[in-house]
Write a structure and sequence with these properties.
Helix content of chain A: 25-40%
Shape of chain A: elongated
Structural class of chain A: alpha+beta
Number of helices of chain A: 14
Largest interface: A-B, 108 and 107 residues
Oligomer: homodimer
Radius of gyration of chain A: 26 Å
Largest sheet of chain A: 8 strands, mixed
C-alpha cells in the first residue's frame, strides 16, 4: 500500500476518498471514549490535519487506546468524509502502529502554552500549531522572494559573510577569529592575516554584481552585535538586498511595491489555513491588513512632506512623545501615524536628510537631502530601506572623507564609478521584519528557528 | 519608447523584429571600420548578446566611434536579423548615448585573461563571459534546489550560523566574539555569555524541524577554519542539508538521485548557452557528462563491495598510490576509478566503517558499519554525504561517550529520540562542489563571488 503524506492526501482527496492509505506522523491529541478513539494526527506537511478514528475492533485495542500525545505512529485506514469539515478528511483506521513512544512528561501537552515557555523548548515548538504556521510561512515567503526575482531575470548572489570591511562605517560587528581568546593578538597571524568580522550588509558586493548582470539580489544572513533586547532586534537575521542598474529612485519604489505585493499575494494564496489560524491567534485584522495591501497603492511623500503632515497632526491635537522635525529622523510613533492614521496604507518616505543616512546615497541638488527611501507599513514600521546610489566619484569620495570612511579598503567600490558606472539603485529588507508583518507575530524571537540575542545562544 | 533588457529582447524577438527598442548596458568590445562601427553589447541579463551596428550617419559619429570598452551606454535602434546567427538579434543603432565612461586602463580588455589574474580583480570579473556563465548557473542552480524541495512540500529552514555547540566534534571552527582581541577574556562577559563559533553544519537543528514538518531542507552558509589551500577548500561556502522523517537509507538514496537529476536537468534547460560556452572553455566533455547523468541510473554498492572492486582492479594492474582496504576510508583516486573507470556513472557507496563516520549515524547490526552513504560523481568526487540517523537513544549516547562528545550541550538533540522519534535520514551537499560539477570549473575560488581562504579575505 502507498505511504502518503497529508499534503498528498489533501491534493488527491477526491481520488483517494474511500480507498485505504498509509500515513506516518505524530499524535497531537488523543481523546478516548469507551469503544472509540480519536487522534489529532499531523505530519507537518499540511496545516489542516486529518482526524484518525478507530474503534475497539482495531488490532491491539488496549495498546492503541493508550498511545501517548507526541508519539510517532503509522496509520493504515480508509479515507472517509469528515462530518465537521468536508475539506478535511478523516481516516477510519484499520491498524495503528507505534513508531516512537513519547513519555507522559512530554512538555508539549494539548493546551495553550505561552510563547515565552515555548522559546525555552525551541527544539519542540515547531510541532505546535502556532509555529507550524509561522515556519511554513517563513519557507513559503522565502520561496516567493526567490520566485519574484528569478522570474524577472535577476541573478541570486551569495555575498561574503566574513569580511574585512565594515560597510556601514558603524561598529556593532562580531569579530571572526581563529586566535586563542585572552592571549596576545597579532592580526597578521590570524586566519585571514587581518582583522575580520561578520558582514552587516552585502550591498557593496552586490553593487559589483549589478554592474555586470544589471539585476541582482542577495538573500542571506546578516549580523549585528547590537546589545539591545527588544522585540525587533536579533544578532543574526536574514536580509534581501536587490540592486538594479539603470534604475533611479522612483523606479526603485515601483520595484519595491510590486515585489512586496507579489510576496504577500503568494503567501495569501499558498497558506490560507495558516493565515486564518494566525488571524485568530493574533486577535484579528491580519487577513484584512494583508488583503488590503495587495489592493492598495502605496503612498509616496518626501521626508519634508511627511514632517509637514506630522506637524499638522500635532497642531490638531495628536500627541507625540517626540516632536517631528524637518531635517531629523522620524520616530516609531510618527511612522505609525503616517501608515495607520493618515494614509491607511504603506508609505514611501523619500529624499531624507543627508546627515542621518549612509555615505553611498545619491546627493540631491538641494545639498541637504539624499535619494533615499524608506517603506513604512502598517503594523511593522520600516520594512525596506533603499536608495539611488551616488555615482559621481567626486561626490562619493568627498562624503567618505567627511564621514571618515577609509577609501583604501573600499577602492574597488569607488572604482565601480570609474569603470562604466551608471545610475543604479537598491534596497534592503530584513526578512524577519517581513515575517512579523506577514504573521502578525510581534516578537522577532518567534519568527526565527533559533534566535540569537544578547546572552542567548541556545541550541 | 520602451526600455528593454536583452532577456526581453530574446524572449520577444519575433514580436520586436523590425521595431525600435532602447537597451542599456555595457560595451564588451568595439570594432571600428571607416564608415561603420560594431559594438559587442551586454547587460548581463542574457548570455547571448546582441551586436550593435552603426554607421557614420549616427548623431555624434566622432564621439560614438571612440567609445571605450567597459563604458555604459544607452542604445536606441531597430531590431534586425543577424547574419551570423538568427537566434541572436542585431541592433541597427539610431542613437548611442554614453552613460558612464571607462578609461583606457580598464583591466578587462577584450582578450583572454587568466583566472588567476581575474581573481585579483574579483569585483570586475563577473563582467567576463566566463563568470557571466558561472554566476548565472550558480543562481539558476540555487533556484532549482529550492524548486525541487518546495514543490515536494519541504519546509526551508534557516538554521543558526552562530552556535555554542560544535556539532561535528571537530575543531576547525571560527570563534565569534565581541571581546577586545588580545585582552583578558571572560566568556561569561562575551556577547552571548559563553564561547560561540560559526556553524559547520545545520543538520542537528534541521533534525528538530524534520521531527515537526517531516520534510525540511536547509540552504545556507557554512564555515570551516581549515588551513588548507587546495582547489576544493574554502573557509566559507554554502550547503544544502535536507532531513526527512520516516525515511531510511535506501529511500534517502532515491531522494538524492532524483534531486541531483532534477537540478542538473534544470540547469541544462535554462542555461544552454552558458553550458555550451563552458563546455568549450573547459576543453569539452561537460555537456556529455551532464546529459549522461540525467539518463543514467546511479550505481549502489556497499563500502565492502567497493573495496573488493578496487582490490580486484589493483590485482589486474591498476596503479593506486594508496592501497584500498576494508574498514578504511577511500582516497580520491579510488573514487575516480569507481565513477570514471568502473561504473561510468555516479555511485552511491553505503554502509561505511563506523570508526571513520560521525556519531549520529545509525549503527548497523554487524557492529562494524553505519548506515552512511556517499554519492561519488565523475569529475567531482564526493558530492553528497548522508546517513540514516541513530534513533535508539542508548546506542546514540553510548557512541557519544565513546567519542567524548558532550551530552549536556546536546541534550535537546538526544531528546528527539525520546519524544516521538522515528526512522529518519538526511544528507548534505556542498553547493560549490555541485557548481564545480555543473560548470567544469575546477577551482572553488572561481565559483564563489568572493572566496574566503587562508590569508585571503579581499573585497
Amino acid at each position: 500500500m502507498e505511504i502518503i503524506t497529508t499534503l498528498a492526501l489533501k491534493e488527491r482527496l477526491a481520488e483517494l476518498q474511500g480507498t485505504e492509505v498509509c500515513l506516518q506522523g505524530w499524535i497531537r491529541n488523543h481523546r478516548k471514549q469507551k469503544n472509540m478513539g480519536f487522534i489529532d494526527f499531523y505530519d507537518g506537511m499540511c496545516f489542516k490535519n486529518p482526524q484518525v478514528v478507530y474503534d475497539n475492533t482495531i488490532e491491539g485495542w488496549e495498546k492503541v487506546s493508550t498511545l501517548h500525545v507526541g508519539a510517532s505512529i503509522t496509520v493504515v485506514g480508509t479515507v472517509v468524509p469528515s462530518y465537521k469539515d468536508p475539506t478535511t478528511p478523516e481516516i477510519q483506521a484499520r491498524t495503528i502502529t507505534l513508531e516512537g513512544d513519547c513519555p507522559e512528561d512530554y512538555p508539549l501537552q494539548p493546551k495553550r502554552h505561552s510563547v515565552e515557555f515555548l522559546r525555552e523548548i525551541a527544539y519542540l515548538r515547531p510541532r505546535t500549531r502556532l509555529f507550524q504556521a509561522v515556519f511554513r510561512i517563513r519557507s513559503v515567503a522565502a520561496m516567493a522572494i526567490h520566485t519574484y526575482f528569478q522570474d524577472r531575470g535577476y541573478v541570486y548572489v551569495h555575498t561574503p559573510l566574513i569580511t574585512s570591511n565594515d560597510a556601514e562605517g558603524a561598529g556593532n560587528t562580531f569579530t571572526v577569529t581563529t586566535a586563542k581568546m585572552g592571549e596576545k593578538y597579532d592580526a597578521s597571524e590570524d586566519f585571514f592575516g587581518k582583522p575580520t568580522s561578520l558582514a552587516v550588509t552585502g550591498q557593496l558586493e552586490g553593487e559589483t554584481f549589478a554592474m555586470a548582470f544589471s539585476k541582482i539580489y542577495t538573500f542571506g544572513p546578516t549580523f549585528r552585535a547590537e546589545n539591545s533586547n527588544t522585540k525587533t532586534h536579533a544578532a543574526e537575521f536574514w536580509m534581501i538586498e536587490p540592486e538594479i542598474a539603470f534604475c533611479d529612485l522612483q523606479q526603485l519604489m515601483d520595484v519595491e511595491e510590486e515585489f512586496l505585493k507579489f510576496v504577500v499575494k503568494t503567501v495569501i494564496e499558498k497558506c490560507p489555513d495558516e493565515l486564518e489560524f494566525l488571524d485568530k491567534f493574533t486577535g484579528g485584522g491580519l487577513l484584512d491588513k494583508l488583503n488590503g495591501l495587495t489592493g492598495s497603492k502605496c503612498a509616496r511623500v518626501t521626508h519634508d512632506e511627511a514632517i509637514t503632515i506630522l506637524r499638522k497632526a500635532m497642531e490638531n491635537g495628536t500627541k507625540f512623545q517626540f516632536e517631528p522635525k524637518y531635517g531629523e529622523d522620524t520616530a516609531k510613533e510618527h511612522e505609525k501615524y503616517l501608515t495607520e492614521e493618515y494614509f491607511h496604507s504603506p508609505v514611501f518616505v523619500y529624499d531624507w536628510p543627508k546627515d542621518i543616512k549612509a555615505f553611498y546615497m545619491y546627493q540631491n541638488d538641494d545639498g541637504k537631502t539624499v535619494s533615499a527611501v524608506d517603506l513604512l507599513v502598517p503594523g511593522a514600521g520600516e520594512l525596506m530601506g533603499g536608495s539611488q546610489r551616488e555615482t559621481r566619484m567626486d561626490k562619493l569620495t568627498e562624503r567618505m572623507d567627511q564621514l571618515g570612511i577609509s577609501k583604501e579598503s573600499l577602492d574597488w567600490y569607488i572604482n565601480l564609478r570609474k569603470f562604466g558606472g551608471c545610475t543604479h539603485s537598491g534596497f534592503g529588507m530584513g526578512f524577519e521584519r517581513l515575517l512579523i508583518y506577514l504573521t502578525g507575530v510581534d516578537n522577532i524571537r518567534d519568527v526565527i528557528p533559533y534566535a540569537r540575542t544578547p546572552m542567548n545562544c541556545e541550541f
